[in-house]
Amino acid sequence: MTPESRYYFSQRLKMHYLVWGDESKPPLLLVHGTRDHARSWDRTAEALSDRYCVYAPDLRGHGDSQWSIGGDYSIIDYALDIHALGEAIGRAPYTIIGHSLGGGVTLQYAGAFPEKVSKVVTIEGLGGLGWASGVRRPAHVRMRQWVESMRKLEQRRLRSYEDIDTATERMMEANRHLSPELARHLTVEGVKPADDGGVTWKFDNFTHAGSPYEFNMEDARDLWNQIRCPLLIIWGEESWGVRNGDLDLSAFHDYRYEKVAKAGHWVHHDQFDVFIGLVNGFLAE
Q: What does the domain layout of the chain look like in residue ranges?
């Protein structure tokens, strides 16, 4: 199944998204993680498009969406983009599945606009965003480190690879659970021609940037507490991400979590059949 490409605007950026299926069916959004892209969801979209019309955006600075001039890539910018997408589609409330950064962005959106979300699945989407450490650096330290890191990013260039095969090897190094076929698909959809004749990743280097204004757990819990829709939290047992036991989830109301064996951070790639089984059961409730 080949998705349809569409565009919308958020904060003056031209944003790209994909559509699978019949728009007379209920809407479902798929939100990818950092330095990923919308085509990462192909298998998930195809598995759900018999019951839903599936929409998958490329986050700003990713895939075929425009890069943010100045390098604004905070979680609140991404949440704004998802809200703008929802308005452009005009079919709220939405079921949303988000991975990693996309899961965190989804929870921000659902907490700010709970009436626009009917169900949420977050895959490895509660940690890795500075929420769980509990240690806040002094403001002057954060500001200085952020300024210095941004200046370094100005000098950084995206790495170029000789060809698709070489880039695919790098993809498999990042996730040893990937099959060669899936790794190649993710690579083909995630690269663009480089100036030297090779290929380079589509994402903007400035997506590595952080923020001097840390999003703390107090703010996270306030947003989480506003979410009233059912929530499924999925974790990979072999992931480097934050474990459920490391977080206080009491701010959530109607939630459950599932740990998936033999899966790392990319649960929906590593154990697709288990993942889609959990999602199907949750959505059918």
A: 4-157+206-284, 159-202
If you count them, how many residues does the chain have?
Answer: 285
What's the CATH architecture for 4-157+206-284?
A: 3-Layer(aba) Sandwich (3.40)
* Residue 127, pLDDT score: 63
The two tokens of residue 182 are 């899936």
Q: Beta 255-260 vs 160-161: how paired, if at all?
A: unpaired
DSSP 40: G
Bridge partners of residue 57, in order along the sequence: 17
Going by their DSSP bridges, the two strands 191-193 and 255-260 should be labelled as unpaired
How many whole angstroms separate alpha carbon 65 and alpha carbon 209?
18
What percent of the residues of the chain are helix, what percent strand, and what percent coil, each to the nearest 5? 40, 20, 40
Rounded-to-integer distance, Cα 107 and Cα 96, Å: 10
Map residue 114 onto helix, strand or coil: helix
Q: In what order do the strands lie in the sheet with 117-123?
A: 4-10, 13-20, 53-57, 27-31, 94-99, 117-123, 231-236, 255-260
Token match 């009917």: residue? Answer: 118
Question: What does the pLDDT read at residue 243?
Answer: 56
pLDDT in tens, 231-267: 999 999 998 765 545 677 899 999 999 999 999 999 9
Q: What is the pLDDT of residues 169-222, one digit of tens each?
A: 999 998 889 999 999 999 999 999 999 999 999 999 999 887 888 777 788 889
